[in-house]
Amino acid sequence: MDTYSVDVVYQAISALFQGNNPKEQEKANKWLQDFQKSIYSWTIADELLHQKRDLHANYFAAQTMRNKIQNSFSELPPHTHESLRDSLITHIGQIDEQTDNVIVTQLSLAVADLALLMASWREPINDLLVTLAPHQCAIWPLLEVLKVLPEEIDSRYLRLGANRREEVHKQLDASAECVLKFLCMCLQREDLDQQRVWNAALRTYSAWLVIHAFPVSHVYNNALTQLAFRLLSLPETSGKLHDNATECVCALLSCINTRQDSASDPESSFEAQLFGAVCMLETPYHLSVAHEDTDKTINYCRIFTSLCDAFFYDLLADAQKPHYSLKGLDLVLLCVGHFDYEVAEITFHLWYKLSEDLFQRNEDKLTVLFRPHIERLISALFRHSQMESDHDGLIEENNNFYDFRRKVSDLIKDVAFIVGSGACFKQMFHILQAPETTWESTEAALFIMQNVAKNILPDENEVIPKVVEAILNMSEQTHIAVRYTAILLIGELCDWIENHAESLEAVLNFLLYALQQKNGLAPAAAIALTSICSACRQKMVCHISGLVEIARSLDSFQINNDVAIGLLKGISLILTRLPREQLQPALREIVGFQLQPLAQLVDSTGGTVQKGERTDPVYWIDRACAIIRHTNPDVPDNVEHPTVAILNDAWQLISRVMDKYQNDLRIMERTCRLIRYGIRMVRKQAMMLVEPLIKQMVVLYSVQHHSCFLYVGSILVDEFAKSSECIGGLLEMLQAFIEPTFGLLQMENGLKNNPDTVDDFFRLASRYLDCCPHQLLQSSLITPIFQCALIACSLDHREANSSVMKFFINL
Questions:
Q1: 310, 317, 750, 802: which sits with the fewest CB atoms below 10 Å from its CB?
Q2: Between vectors from CA 615 to CA 612 and to CA 617, what angle results, nearest 5°?
Q3: Which of 204-218, 258-272, 371-385 has the highest mean pLDDT?
């Protein structure tokens, strides 16, 4: 106790908040953190609150008290709980107009958390009401306590058990009527600041509504609910009050238990009244739009969307006899039609929910019921997706409008089935045909069409041929954004093009021309070409020489490496369809385009690796990896795989990459992935690589401890452990891996700091148990592996722990 005293703590607080020496402030901060963890902080924080020396000391003491209750309540013996409670209530009662709001919040949270944790405090709400409600100054902290108490029930810091939570809910339910009376009484008091008490009372009321503490009979016809709707109906309501009234109504709507009940049910009557009250907010919504008060408009949008959420299952109850709540969707569509796309975005989760439910139910009559609403939704999304008429160039990635269009894209793909993709496509086509259509309308229509094109039947011959012809004949003067979106649409029509082979030649010429442009069209062309390669594999075989030239010229196009890799995947899918005598030379040539620059990097001396640039080995390794992975011809086991010779020839280069860049984990992981796909492709025909690969991996692993080598080891076991001539070498590999692995894991916090190593090592051990169990169990290696697994059971890491458990299951 000599170390900690009120005066010493106060000096540390002063040094922290009022000192000028950063080192002294850091020292004081560390000392105060240690103090807060000590048992003495309970009494000293309590004393500081009584003394009220200054704002900083009061704030620190209130925060300390709250943190102690939240995190260290078990430190206190049960017989001290009551004195702590009484002391805190005394502090709350002494709050006045001059008390800082932060201190009020911290003390209120301390009282609320104590009420939740202190099971012996049987009626905390009633006790607080009796003690504090009669005093005018105590009304404000009492309202704060009553607000935060229901909010803290599910606090992840308190970690209340299920039984205690249930007890607390019963306590709050029993006190709910008293709380409601108190809140309504606060509204009637003339000695309190009206705006302030309205805000505080509505916030508290909302917190209790969220936990469904009030009986339905008490919810609608009370002064607080009426106040919320009155405030929302008045255009002069302040922003803060409008926000709190909105929260209140949304919480009210969350209380609705939508059921298939009779109209005479009192709860159904309440629901109808509440629905009618929300519908009356349509006029205030229009006023907010007229006054361009976007914050209020957003609030109304939230309420209308919450209304449909609350009545969601009533909306879907009966297609023959639509529920009155269907009007709620009209209110939501009003908001979707607002000029600000941020308002429309608030409603998106509702449309997702509706489309998912309709898809699951698969009832035609129900789907037809909502078709007009989705048609209006798509029309509104078309308008919101339009770029500004004076916009030059393409939309910049990662700005707000780009992100919004991405969300629109996802939403349209989800809801299109309700109106039919073909009907949606045709609706946008009519917009394109309208006279004097602006470029931004054209681009937005093409954007909508792009998102439904994949779902249109490939034999459609009415609209798509006209659209494709118009796109292929676009002039150079067409706005760049229109051309960009049109190219992406061509890519999405790949299944239609596959079914209309006569259009393929013209489409490929069009895309090749766009790919060569330096104006931003190349990425779209590459993406579209990738899609067409994937869909038209057999029909593209005759164009392989052109595709090889594209692969040769890849770095002359204005595309990033991810798009280039995608294009190589598409070309590789065509390679797979080639006859054997054409496949190997074409594959060797395309792989060579990637390995030659890689070899130059390995041969070069000096120079730094610039991540993602051409001086980065990963740049070329990822490309080669994409080619090897997706060139997957159907080759019988007794015929040499066309990739074998290429893989054997590339081994020397791969080996040199591993040697030169052994310190770089990222490069090693990508190299191991290339080896993995190569071995998986040719399987047992990679036998010639096993011995040199194992020798090099064992040496590198003993020095660098990269767990990716363990992963490649598990691939080798999977492929070659069934061959008797390989088992000895594979067991030697495991023995060589064990020593550096165990050395790493036995260091301080070794398991915790190396979960990837644990994961990959026990995946490797499991592969041995799967593929050659007798040889492993008869060896001396199984004992140390088993002992390590027992220790690794305690590791709190999902993937690593899963691999350890799988090892035990296999064992």
A1: 802
A2: 75
A3: 371-385
What one-letter code names the amino acid at 192?
L
3-state secondary structure 453-494: HHHCCCCCCCCHHHHHHHHHCCCCCCCHHHHHHHHHHHHHCH
Q: CA 266 to CA 276: how far, in whole Å?
A: 15
Q: Provide the phi-psi class of 214: left if phi over 0, else alpha when psi is between -120 and 50, else beta.
A: beta
The torsion angle over the Cα atoms of residues 507, 508, 509 and 510, rounded to 10 degrees, is 50
Distance CA 616, CA 598 (A): 9
Domain that holds residue 783: 728-810
- List, as one string, the DSSP characters of 3-20: S--HHHHHHHHHHHHH--
Answer whether residue 643 is part of any domain: no
- Which of 132, 241, 233 has its CA nearest to residue 197? 241
Q: Is the dihedral angle over the CA atoms 576, 577, 580, 583 positive or is it negative? A: negative
CB 176 within 8 A of CB 208: yes
Q: Exposed, middle or buried, 441 (CB in 10 Å: 0-12/13-18/19+)?
A: buried
Phi, psi (degrees; rounded to nearest 5) at 611: -55, 130
Asked if pLDDT for residue 635 goes beyond 90, the answer is: no
Around 317, how many Cα atoms within 13 Å sit in the side-chain half-sphere? 15
Vertex 674 angle, CA 704 and 494, to 5°: 145
Q: Angle 642-660/665-682 helices, nearest 10 degrees?
A: 160
Tokens of 452: 């439904």
Answer positive or negative: Cα dihedral of 443, 445, 447, 453.
negative
Task: Give, as one character, the DSSP assignment of residue 453.
Answer: G
Q: What is the pLDDT of residues 3-39, one digit of tens each?
A: 788 999 999 999 999 888 899 999 999 999 999 999 9
Give the pLDDT confidence of 328-341 residue by residue, as tens digits: 999 999 999 999 99
414 assigned to some structural domain:
yes
End residue of a domain, out of 390, 418, 446: 418
In a domain, 334, yes or no: yes
CB 100 within 8 A of CB 58: yes
Instruction: Report the distance separating Cα 396 and Cα 572, nearest Å.
Output: 31
DSSP labels for 194-260?
HHHHHHHHHHHHHHHHHTT-S-HHHHSSSHHHHHHHHHHH-TT--HHHHHHHHHHHHHHHHT-----
Mean pLDDT of 298-327: 92
Q: Tell me how many domains the chain contains.
A: 2
**What is the model's pLDDT at position 492?**
96
> Rounded to whole angstroms, how far apart are CA atoms 487 and 515?
10
pTM: 0.85
656: in domain: no
Residue with tokens 């709380």: 179
The full DSSP string for 296-355 is: HHHHHHHHHHHHHHHTHHHHTS-SSS--GGGHHHHHHHHHHTSS-HHHHHTTHHHHHHHH
For residue 490, give Cα distances in angstroms to 185, 408, 495, 528, 560: 67, 19, 10, 6, 20
Per-state percent for the chain, helix, strand, coil, to nearest 5: 75, 0, 25
3-class DSSP state for residue 168?
Answer: helix
579, 635, 691 from 632: Cα distances, Å: 12, 9, 25
Rounded Cα distance between 95 and 174, Å, is: 28
Closest alpha carbon to 564 in 517, 635, 515: 515
Q: Considering only CA atoms, which of 545, 546, 564 is closest in space to residue 554?
A: 564
| pLDDT tens-digit readout, 518-546 | 999 999 999 999 999 999 999 999 999 99
| Domain closes at, from 395, 418, 441 | 418
Q: How confident is the model at residue 219 (pLDDT cuts 50, 70, 90)?
A: confident
Q: Two tokens at 299? A: 């609030």
Contact of 179 with 123, CB cutoff 8 Å: no
For residues 662 and 607, the model is more confident at 662
| Residue 322, Cβ density class (10 Å: 0-12 exposed, 13-18 middle, ≥19 buried) | middle
